[in-house]
Amino acid sequence: MADTVSYVQYETYEGGSPEAERLVFEKLARDLMRVQLRNKSSGGAQRVQRAFHAKRVLGVENARLRFNDDLPPALTQGYAQPGAEYAALVRLSNASGIPGSDVSPDMRGIAVRVEVSSEETHDLLAANFPVSHARNAREFVAFAKAMAGARTPWQKAFGLLVKLPLAVGWATATRMRRNVQAAARHTVGSLARETYWSRGAYLWGDAGPVRYQLRPAPGGAPAPRPDRHDPDHLRHELAERLAAADVEFDLCVQRFVDEKRTPVEDGATEWRESDAPVVPVARLTLPRQDITTAEAASAARRIEQQAFNPWHTTEDFRPLGNLNRARKAAYQASAAHRLGTRFRAEEPLRNTVLGAPLRAVFTALNRYVPWHRLPLNAGLLNLVALRQVLRRHNLIDTEIPEAPPKAVPVPETVDERARTARSYDGSNTDLSAPRMGATGATFGRNLKPVYRPDLFDTPNPVTVARELLHRRAFQPATSLNILAAAWIQFQVHDWVNHQRYSLAERSIEVPLPPGSTWYNTPGGPAENVMRIAENRGLERPGKPPVLFTNTTSPWWDGSEVYGGDEPTARSLREPDGAKLRLEDGHLPMGSNGIPLTGFNENWWLGLSVIHTLFAREHNAVCDALHKEYPKMSAEQVYQTARLVVSALIAKIHTVEWTPAILATKAIDISLHTNWEGPPNNWLHKLGLWLVESHSLTGIPKTLPDHHNVPFSLTEDFVTVYRMHPLLPDDYELREHHFGQRLEALSFNDLQGGAAEALARKTGLTDTLYSLGIAHPGAVTLHNYPRALTRFERDGEIIDLSVVDLVRSRRRGVPRYNDFLAGLHKPRLTRFAEVSADPDTAALLKDVYRDVDEIDTVVGLFAESPPQGFGFSDTAFRIFILMASRRIQSDRFLTVDFRPEIYTPLGMDWVARNGMNSVILRHCPELAAMLPRDASAFAPWRPVLPVRGSGAGS
Fold first, then answer.
1. Residue 188's closest CA among 111, 130, 107?
2. pLDDT in tens, 452-472
3. What are the φ/ψ torsions at residue 121 (nearest 5 degrees)?
4. What average pLDDT is seen over the chain?
5. How many CB atoms lie within 10 A of CB 524?
6. Per-residue pLDDT tens for 321-368?
7. Contact yes or no for 502/795 (Cβ under 8 A)
8. pLDDT per residue over 213-226, tens digit each?
9. Percent of the chain with pLDDT over 70
10. In whole angstroms, what is the distance from residue 452 CA to residue 84 CA?
11. CA gap 675, 887 in Å, rounded
């Protein structure tokens, strides 16, 4: 096999490196999808067509490619062996992206897929002109954009004479126009009598670069004169020709001589036969057949579902040159767009034009007046503008790109099961990028990482935690109940999880303040350092270790209930059934006393009741589906119920939990707009129509949109969701009939293995009631649960408040002041600007040397939040960016959120239900206690104990 060195010498990467070039290609791929949409609207097509070669003239599956017996030894490489014969698919087409008449001026093309084996194919693509109109990918896409949607002669002339020169310059446009016009003027009477050139260079094993041609084999009937009155002349001519005889082409190659005469990077320069002789190597045969039969039509339709790409080959035969390298990403995007696995929505011109000044106005205004102090409609419009700014500047892709491109021996196909059901590990949620958001994908970034090993222990994180985070006296969040605290942990377990080494494998040593000691393991010795198990990161030579993988999938797929892999998911189900296993209505118990469920780390009573509730909800959906659709299999019922429950969880979080913790009118309207579209307010609708019309329907009715960055959740998102202060240290369990106290407990009494036994003893109804009437802690300084400051986990004793600080520093999350600036807020110059409370500002000054050292978590907790907010406005900026992204990137919450996938019953279930109805379905006795005009996360009505009954003792 040819090694990398043997062919990289022929190539020069735009931007100086494969990685830089790849970024250019990704933008060009998006541009081609935009071209497809323009062509669709202009061509009157009901669906997206190919960006080029949209009209198929012929498609056959029974062609053969046979290499010559006298194949030269130097060209005997890989699958190219003397006498070797392979099956092939062939597609002949007109080059335009808009299907038109066969007699219109146009170029023609051929695509051949050589099927060597089930593990190896080779796609050969060529056009009937010896050179490309474009030297490189930029020119290629510029031409496509200039001609997008052009059908009439004057539209084509405007594209060639005005749009193209503006894009590439007059001289380049003239050369491109000359090539295109020369090719299009060529009269084509039969596609069987045309010569097709690859135009770009390809590796041919150890023989080095070649360009190939497909020439009509000697003999055969000459091409007739075109019938100018027949728009399908070329197809009809081929039908007659194939009905009478085989159609044959000779596959020929020209070998590389030198970069001047046979350039690799320049697709617009011809390799002259006088410099590089043409050598026949194989014959392609389209056998005699009737292409007008139903069987032939079926084969042609199957070929239309194929995605031809020159990168469907082996590394020995990989494409070479800038134009060819761009084709991998571009053709993949174009094919996925055409086949409905990747999406592109055009922004209306009015939104494009008005969006920029609107963002500029609000950016300037927010320096003096924050969004939450503006009148309601202005504040709502401000939030739209802010989200647009964050989408443009605060989504950073951390996945290591494929650069340079790699060959794909067998074209990837979509797993048909994944079209209608969520996968176990999150893969195939985006069918065009199967590993996007799957377990093991990297955490993204909203801000560029700041990796400062010299500041890991400055100031000492133990001192910071003890002085600023540890709870002194419980500070309640009186607008919420403890179910709100359990809910967010339930959600975070669905979205994010970093893998850790064991303490013995690899640990971080945090020095303790003078005179302090710490027991790092149960029964271990006192030490003068606090040891914390280190995260497993991706090692990249020469780069800071700030890249980590997510061991769960970040999609809203209910993996905390259902599991993140198939063995776990199947083990949680009833044997041969659709329901989840329950024991008398409770989660099945594991051998360690912790229930069996999708994700059961950091287990406590609050998680137990939420998990139990949604396991029961799954089973209720299964019963309803089975009754409504008795012919559905158990697997179909299970997968549909999972879709329904996952979407219901997403809805509850969007329109109930979030407005509960961010209790303002603007947020309530915004979150409901995200899910179901704006309220019936003409001013609000007009604002969205002018600046972000996609929001007029609610995200579930839009197309998936990753905003040009593959979906992931981010390290910054993990940081702002450190909401441990929500957990109280002390709890009361009460029964719901008379309000009688059952037990008073500490957090340690209801976490870990003790939680499930307590949940079963108390019962789901009374446990929900007990948590529903009690307040969680406020997310602020000096309110970190005492129980979590000396907490046993996985054989180590940790202070979780210290761990939060250490993790953020070592993962490269910027410190608070840099965090503010990165989220487009003014930098701070004084401690008094962090918090309106002078005592807090003074304490911050005692702990930190200057404001630039303040830890992000500390700054977020210290910040004075907007009225009604349960956490800071800075954390909220990450939230408004990522909250809508979790919905908009997910096809199961957008284009595939439809009755055909969910069933009509499933869609109705999501529409009609919320947290209150879920609770009442499984615990109807709680109807009188739930809030009348608020979500189930607001405080419930407590039942007052009856005097003299012993209640409340």
1. 107
2. 999 999 999 999 999 999 999
3. -135, 165
4. 93
5. 14
6. 999 998 999 899 999 999 999 998 888 999 999 999 999 999 999 989
7. yes
8. 999 999 989 999 98
9. 98
10. 60
11. 9
Q: If you ran DSSP here, which 8-state letter would residue 163 be given? A: I
Q: What is the DSSP letter of 196?
A: E
Contact between 684 and 377 under an 8 Å Cβ cutoff? The reply is: yes
Give the three-state DSSP class for 626.
helix
| Structure tokens given for 58 | 């012929």
> Which of these is catalytic: 337, 493, 706, 724?
493
Question: In 3D, which of 295, 494, 329, 447 has the Cα closest to residue 818?
Answer: 447
Residue 538, CA distances (Å) to 549, 590, 718, 861 in order = 7, 32, 18, 30
Give the CA count within 13 Å in the CB-facing half-sphere of 201.
Answer: 33
Residue 681 pairs in a beta bridge with none
Q: In 3D, which of 467, 533, 511 has the Cα closest to residue 798?
A: 533
Separation in Å, CA 685 to CA 362, 471, 682, 903: 19, 45, 5, 30
Q: In DSSP terms, which residues pair with 63 in a beta bridge?
A: 88
CB count, 10 Å around CB of 536?
A: 15
> Using CA atoms, how far apart are residues 529 and 509, in angstroms rounded to an integer?
6
Place of tokens 């003096």: 368
Residue 171: enclosing H or E segment and its boundaries? helix 170-185
For residue 319, say if its preceding peptide bond is cis, omega within 30 degrees of 0.
no
Exposure string over 303-326, b if 16+ CB within 10 A, otherwise e? beebbbbbbbbbbbbbbbbbbbbb
The tokens describing 533, both together, are 């198990």
Per residue, what are the HEC states of 715-784? HHHHHHCCCHHHCCCEEEEECCCCCCEEEEEEHHHHECHHHHHHHHHHCHHHHHHHHHCCCCECCCCCCE
Determine the Cα–Cα distance for residues 707 and 886; give it in Å rounded to an integer.
12
Query: Residue 141: which of 24, 264, 12 has the closest Cα?
Result: 24
Contact 679, 945 (CB under 8 A): no
Rg for the chain, CA atoms, rounded:
32
Neighbouring C-beta atoms of residue 342, cutoff 10 Å: 24
DSSP conformation class of 951: T
User: Which amino acid is located at 299 in the chain?
Assistant: A
Q: Can you read off the two tokens belonging to residue 284?
A: 């392609």
In this structure, the number of other CB atoms found within 10 A of the CB of residue 289 comes to 17
CA torsion through residues 677, 681, 683, 689, sign: positive
| 493 given a catalytic annotation | yes
Residues 6+ apart with CB under 8 A from 219: none
Strand partners, 59: 91
Report yes or no: 565 and 425 within 8 Å, Cβ to Cβ. yes
What domains, with CATH codes, occur in the chain?
Answer: 4-338 (2.40.180.10)
Burial class (CB in 10 A: 0-12, 13-18, 19+), 123: buried
pLDDT of residue 7: 43
3-class secondary structure, 845: helix
pLDDT tens, residue by residue, 491-524: 999 999 999 999 999 999 999 999 999 999 999 9
pTM confidence score: 0.93
Residues 6+ positions from 109 with CB-CB distance below 8 Å: 52, 53, 92, 93, 94, 95, 125, 126, 127, 128, 196
**Measured between alpha carbons, how far is residue 251 from residues 117, 165, 200, 215, 288 in Å?**
20, 36, 15, 7, 19
Per DSSP, 892 falls in state G
Give the count of beta carbons closer than 10 Å to the beta carbon of residue 30.
Answer: 18
Are 889 and 711 in contact by the 8 Å Cβ rule? The answer is yes
Q: How far apart are alpha carbons 687 and 691 in whole angstroms?
A: 6
Distance CA 485, CA 110 (A): 61
Contact criterion met (CB below 8 Å) for 872 and 860: yes
Residue 320's DSSP bridge partners are 201
For residue 773, the number of C-alpha atoms closer than 13 Å in the C-beta half-sphere is 21
Structure tokens at 649: 């969880």
Q: Are 797 and 503 in contact (CB under 8 A)?
A: no
CA atoms within 13 A on the CB side of 162: 7
